[in-house]
Design a protein that fits this description.
By secondary structure, this protein is mostly beta strands. It has one helix at residues 76-88; strands at residues 2-3, 8-11, 14-16, 18-19, 25-32, 40-46, 53-60, 63-72, 96-101, 106-113, 118-121, 126-135, 140-142, 149-151, 178-184, 194-198, 201-208, 213-216, 220-221, 226-230, 235-238, 242-243, 260-270, 280-284, 288-289. Strands 1, 2, 3, 4, 5, 8, 9, 10, 11, 12, 13 and 25 form a twelve-stranded antiparallel beta sheet that branches. A six-stranded antiparallel beta sheet has the order 14-24-16-20-21-22, with no helix packed on it. Residues 33-47 have a biased composition (Polar residues).
């Protein structure tokens, strides 16, 4: 594909503002919903006895994106094939990735088709098209994600050593706090992340320094197991299949990453290991924009 204008829109195997591999020029003439901020869901209630309203912090709604343009092919058969390609780019059921590449930044969003794809002929070799997609998560994410990780610092036992080995592994006491850092370059004040904790670790907890919120888990993650914490979906999964939401201890508070520099801390008791494995926490996150 050869870009012919900016930005370039990529959706499945289709792209807008390009000359595609079949020689068809796809021109996006109108865009609505991508460049603007998401719709706002205000939180307010009219005062029953007084002027004005009671008002709280609002929320962002789903992002609806409309694209309209023209397609010009070299011949009628190529034009007919182009119609089929744009309709095959996205369907009503599965999510698709919308990527928008601008001169300075490339951002992505997970979208689903929300209305029919309209197509109207324009001459013998061209047609006018329009499509509407919706992103349930209104954030526009950086195309590149970061995955910092940290081990669990431990303190070795203090005392006399003996030149003898016993066929048993004892838990290693945790002696410190590991930290991962992520710089959210976007302007979204609540950006999600996926945190993975690798065993062996007993009763792990994670804390977001900037908000002061902590999530702790009453669970033992054995060597070779992983506990995956999705901050957006608010799910806790062991080895990707078994829910462990019940392991979240009372007093825990879910959090999101903020704008700018974020520090997430990791603690727990290192469990028994037959191979010398140490507990590790990793975090996958991408900068997010409104």
């Amino acid at each position: 594909m050869i870009p012919i204008a900016s930005p370039v829109y990529y959706l499945g195997d289709w792209a807008g503002n390009v000359t595609d591999d079949y020689g068809v020029d796809w021109v996006v003439q109108t865009e609505d919903g991508w460049s603007s901020s998401p719709p706002i869901k205000p939180t307010q209630t009219d005062k029953s006895q007084g002027d004005g309203a009671w008002q709280g912090p609002g929320f962002y709604g789903a992002r609806v994106i409309n694209l309209k343009g023209t397609a010009i092919a070299g011949d009628r058969l190529s034009m007919l094939a182009a119609k089929r390609r744009i309709k095959a780019a996205i369907g009503a059921r599965a999510l698709a990735k919308l990527t928008v590449a601008e001169a300075d930044l490339t951002l992505t969003s997970q979208v689903r088709l929300s209305d029919q794809i309209d197509i109207s002929d324009k001459g013998a070799r061209g047609f006018v098209w329009s499509l509407t997609v919706v992103a349930a998560d209104p954030r526009r994410y950086s195309a590149d994600s970061a995955q910092p990780s940290t081990g669990l610092p431990v303190v070795g036992a203090v005392g006399r050593t003996y030149n003898r080995t016993y066929p048993y592994s004892y838990p290693i006491p945790a002696g410190g706090t590991g930290s991962v850092f992520f710089n959210n370059l976007g302007d979204y004040d609540q950006t999600p992340a996926v945190i993975t904790i690798w065993g062996p670790v007993i009763n792990p907890w994670i804390a977001h320094v900037q908000t002061g919120r902590t999530l702790s888990f009453g669970i033992t993650v054995l060597e070779g197991q992983r506990l995956v914490v999705d901050l957006l979906a608010r799910t806790v999964m062991l080895n990707g299949t078994a829910s462990r939401a019940s392991a979240v201890t009372p007093g825990s508070a879910w959090f999101m990453l903020t704008k700018g520099l974020n520090e997430v801390q990791f603690r727990g008791d290192a469990g028994a290991s037959g191979t010398g494995a140490v507990p590790v926490m990793s975090m996958t996150a991408a900068s997010a924009w409104t």
